[in-house]
Design goal:
globular
Length: about 450
């Protein structure tokens, strides 16, 4: 009797131990179980050009996708014109369309970034040339356009920011004080013509500038700051740093004013500001060719990852693979380059977004035209391209997804269940792409 009780106790503990190990595999180690196989593929759009620039997972486990559309049919049911409008749509976890909303006026409006907000809603940014419809004010040519939405895509408020020239909002974050920080670039000539306030770097600038805007929770501008030189300098992403400041990243073509150590034609350029927008430091990274940075992400060890592409094979860029490579940097909080890696084949390959997974692995979203070296296959002209690396940037997985025509991957996410979703555009209707709604469609691919 006693032996039976002891045996039962041991078996029970063994079952509990095995269950705990299984739970650990299914949660903390979920990214390690990733196979890269397709769970589902969805296309969305109408008969004209439709594109996605960003995707987020919403608190209910669904997905909100942001981009722009020129269509007025198919999945787009609330517009009549064929000009470009902001397009936001929501799906459930299986990619089924729940709702779709377009925003804009009678001219060109293109959305770039979407975030979840602390109140359960959404905020989106892009740029607009309109001064009618949903757009209350236009200051000349393109303006930053920020919209605050509720959870079902209804506009709560909208704001434009800009001057007489080409001002494009590319990224936004909700700041620790509940407001928003917007990053992009502006046409300094347009700003100068309107005799606006001076920038916080103290320098007078040229064609295009990094432009950062701090707003309150209602989108009212509190201050702005801009940086650059006499040529084109464009910011594409931003994060808030632990000290309340900001890191803006993008590319610089300039060799003067705020740029003190140019490397070549275009460089990755990183600007660190304090909490009030004043520059603390700036750094260039690159070689003698062209480098463009699109994404910055914080790491668990308080450093930063920056992803884009490079056409160089010298200075900061080692191990060039071909025409253009996906290029990943890791820097510390003072901008010191910790390491850099190139990924690609002999053709054009680019990285558009980088995420650090919970287990320290790095997920890179991009596009590839190659089928050699780091790229094992190619379906057509260009494909979605997913890379996974270890914490030191060493490639441990890569795979292409697409059809025989053009696919461009602009963004992606790692979901709360350990899946990966890629988004961008497709012009194919074969191989991995089951159908095409028109000229160019939004493409979502969920992997397991």
């Amino acid at each position: 009797m006693t032996k039976n009780i002891v045996l039962t106790f041991l078996v029970f503990n063994l079952i509990i131990s095995c269950k705990s190990d299984d739970d650990l595999v299914n949660t903390d180690d979920a990214p390690s179980q990733f196979s890269g196989e397709i769970e589902w593929v969805k296309t969305f759009g109408g008969s004209r050009e439709d594109d996605a620039n960003d995707i987020i997972e919403t608190p209910d486990g669904g997905y909100a996708v942001l981009g722009f559309t020129l269509s007025n049919d198919g999945d787009i049911t609330d517009k009549t014109g064929t000009d470009a409008d902001f397009w936001v749509f929501k799906t459930d976890t299986d990619g089924n369309l729940l709702w779709s909303k377009t925003f804009g006026g009678s001219s060109d409006d293109r959305a770039t970034k979407i975030i979840n907000t602390a109140d359960g809603g959404l905020a989106i940014i892009g740029y607009t040339r309109s001064n009618d419809g949903d757009v209350s004010v236009n200051n000349g040519f393109y303006d930053f356009w920020l919209l605050k939405l509720d959870a079902t895509g209804n506009i709560l408020w909208e704001k434009t920011y800009g001057f007489a020239g080409n001002d494009q909002g590319q990224s936004l974050i909700q700041t620790t004080n509940g407001g928003y920080f917007l990053a992009g670039f502006m046409d300094f000539d347009g700003r100068s013509a309107q005799k606006s306030s001076t920038n916080k770097s103290g320098n007078r600038h040229g064609v295009g500038e990094f432009w950062g805007i701090q707003t309150d929770a209602s989108g009212n501008q509190q201050w702005d700051t801009y940086f650059g030189g006499t040529n084109n300098d464009r910011a594409y992403d931003v994060v808030q740093t632990p000290d309340g400041g900001f890191l803006m990243i993008g590319n610089s073509e300039s060799e003067d004013f705020d740029i003190t150590n140019p490397k070549g034609s275009y460089d990755f350029w990183v600007v660190k500001t304090d909490a009030s927008g004043a520059m603390e430091w700036q750094k260039n990274y690159g070689g003698s060719g062209i480098e463009i940075a699109y994404s910055i992400s914080k790491t668990n060890d308080r450093n930063y990852l920056i992803l884009g592409d490079t056409r160089s094979s010298d200075q900061d860029v080692t191990n060039s693979k071909g025409n253009a490579d996906s290029w990943l940097l890791k820097i510390n909080e003072t901008g010191e380059l910790l390491w850099q890696k190139t990924y690609g084949g002999s053709q054009f390959d680019t990285g558009r977004k980088v995420i650090e997974a919970e287990n320290g692995e790095l997920i890179l979203f991009g596009t590839s035209r190659s089928n050699d070296l780091d790229v094992s296959s190619n379906y057509g002209q260009s494909d979605f391209w997913l890379n996974k690396t270890n914490a030191n940037g060493e490639l441990i997985f890569e795979k292409n997804y697409g059809g025989s025509n053009l696919e461009f991957c602009n963004s992606g996410i790692v979901t709360s269940t350990g899946n990966i979703i890629l988004t961008g555009s497709t012009e194919s209707n074969d191989f991995d792409i089951p159908n095409n709604q028109g000229s160019k469609d939004v493409l979502l691919i969920k992997l397991k």
